[in-house]
Amino acid sequence: MNTEFKQVVLLIEESRNRAFQKVNEELVILYFKIGNLVSDKVSNGVWGEKTVDELADFIQENCPGLKGFNRRGLYRMKQFYETYTSHEFVSTFNLYLQNLDNQLVKIVSPPVTQLSAIENKYSQIVTPLVTQINWANHLLILSKTKSAEEKIFYLINCITQKFSKRELERQLNSAAFERTMLSNKRVADGQSKIPEGLFKDPYIFEFLDIPDTHSEKDLEKALVINLQKFILEIGKGFTYMGNQFRLQVGNKDYFTDLLFYHRDLQCLVLFELKIKEFEPEFLGKLNFYLEALDRDVKRTFENPSIGILLCKGKDTEVVEYAMARSTSAAIIADYETKLIPKSVLAKKLHQLVERLSQN
Fold it and tell me: Where does the secretion signal sit in this chain (predicted)?
């Protein structure tokens, strides 16, 4: 009987979620249309700031108690419309769609790749891309991002990873875009087996309550205790398989740090932890673990394992030398236990792009 009752509750919850999604879609479309009207009137010189104030007062008189339609709210709607119909955004997004690999198409499609317009005059980017994200998240993206690339990054991640407002705020505050782009540039520099957009460098573990001087055991234990937050940082799609995972090679037992399975990539992902700066011998041990996983743990239909070596700092040149002849799918990434200023990461990304363009 309980099973049948639970089925009824599940149906109710599914219906509620669909209704909530529909309400959100209608609200976002409404804000987009109002933003379009205000933008046209202001840009053509028909309306000035005083007129927008009068419109806000008129709405309050005719729709008393309606929130979000004050002067500030109307200008946010104007910004919303202008941002997502700008030439920069539309051209950047079209380029993004062209460059989607097959794996990402499966994750993002159909919500993103099967686009339709609200009206013919509107950008084809608008529906259903932006209507899948609630207004609060849109406001965060609009206020805390600059480039079209950055906006698209967070829009796509909101859709695919279903970020709440709090989760999105953390991603923005921890500069997830810059960290992912830094990782992508280094991946593209010689590790084609690693899919772009999946990993970050550095990883930020500001949620760990551990001292600056900590052991590898302390770090591992803290990550396991805060597993939900750790998975949010590394990205959804990971299924936790355990820590100190036992591998038997010959007559010896070896124990890995943190082992996951990634559902979309269909492969094992191993995180090895080091509390000091990267040394070349770390990579040898990681490659050994990946070989053992592929021979003895990986199933025949699964893809080769990926390894992420988390270090407390690294010399980029040493990493390049160490990775030059490596055939394994591996990433050497930093980790930090405190937030890094976004400006610092943006500067690093700019420097890396310049250096790669000169080579």
Answer: none
Tens of pLDDT, residues 125-135: 455 578 888 99
The tens digit of pLDDT for each residue in 259-274 reads 999 998 899 999 999 9
From CA 92, how far away is CA 145, in angstroms rounded? 15
What's the pLDDT band for 187 if we cut at 50, 70, 90? low
For tokens 């906006």, name the residue. 151
Domain extent listing, the chain: 2-173, 177-358
User: What is the rounded distance in angstroms from the CA atom of residue 85 to the CA atom of residue 87?
Assistant: 7
Three-state DSSP state, 277 = coil
Q: How are beta strands 306-311 and 267-273 bridged, if at all? A: parallel
Residue bearing tokens 């028909």: 46
Find out whether 285 and 326 touch, Cβ atoms under 8 Å: no
Q: The whole model's pTM is what?
A: 0.79
Fold exhibited by the domain 177-358 = Trna Endonuclease; Chain: A, domain 1 (3.40.1350)
Contacts of 356 (CB under 8 A, 6+ apart): 185, 189
H-helix or E-strand spanning residue 233: helix 227-234
Q: What is the DSSP string of 196-211?
A: TTS--SSEE-TT----
pLDDT at position 354: 72
Q: Report in angstroms the alpha-carbon separations of 207 from 45, 104, 106, 189.
A: 50, 29, 32, 31
